[in-house]
TrEMBL record:
One of its GO terms (biological process) is photosynthesis. The gene is ycf3. Seems to be required for the assembly of the photosystem I complex. It is found in: Cellular thylakoid membrane; Plastid. Keywords: Membrane, Photosynthesis, Plastid, Repeat, Thylakoid, TPR repeat. This is Photosystem I assembly protein Ycf3. InterPro entries: PSI_Ycf3_assembly, TPR-like_helical_dom_sf, TPR_rpt. It comes from Apophlaea sinclairii. It comes from the Eukaryota. One of its GO terms (cellular component) is plastid. TPR repeats lie at residues 33-66, 33-66, 70-103, 70-103, 118-151.
């Protein structure tokens, strides 16, 4: 049933995106950039990360709008993160939030990477490094929660249990 719903959503998105491309008053480059972005999203959803990256990079060559570019950078970060390439993921998440500081999902993903590195540091008996990584994770989760206070419940619980939740949220 879930696969059926996913296919419906994908098909609906494609139909709506194609209609928007036809009626939206945009330049040829903007439409082409959106087409690459849409194709990249489809490839990413299907797990074809190499094709998705190719399309996202092509979209970046054409897309000039900072807001739209931020989502392209975010999606590139998602791919690198899911492939375990955390340095590249962080690079693209930071590019995304430089252009669009209201991307709590990018801040959350940065925090997740730092938290994961903190866990790895503990496993390898690097106590000071783990504290540093956990503090960095907290910093980004607090920023994400400033933007989206009702999201990231697990992060909120972790922040509370570790004494890192500030009263400013």
């Amino acid at each position: 049933m879930s696969q059926k719903n996913d296919n419906f959503v994908d098909k609906t998105f494609t139909v709506i995106a194609n209609i928007i491309l036809k009626i939206f008053p945009a330049s040829k480059e903007e439409k082409q950039a959106f087409s690459y972005y849409k194709t990249g999203m489809s490839a990413q959803a299907n797990g074809d990360y190499a094709e998705a990256l190719d399309n996202y990079y092509e979209a970046l060559k054409l897309e000039e709008d900072p807001y739209d570019r931020s989502f392209i950078f975010y999606n590139i970060g998602l791919i690198y993160g899911s492939n375990g390439e955390y340095i590249h993921a962080l690079e693209y998440y930071h590019k995304a939030i430089e252009l669009n500081f209201c991307l709590p999902q990018a801040l959350n993903n940065i925090a997740i990477i730092y938290h994961y590195q903190g866990v790895k540091a503990i496993e390898n008996n690097y106590s000071e490094l783990s504290t540093y990584m956990f503090d960095k994770a907290a910093q980004y989760w607090l920023q994400a929660l400033q933007i989206a206070p009702d999201n990231y419940i697990e992060a909120q619980n972790w922040l509370k249990t570790t004494g890192r939740l500030s009263q400013s949220i």
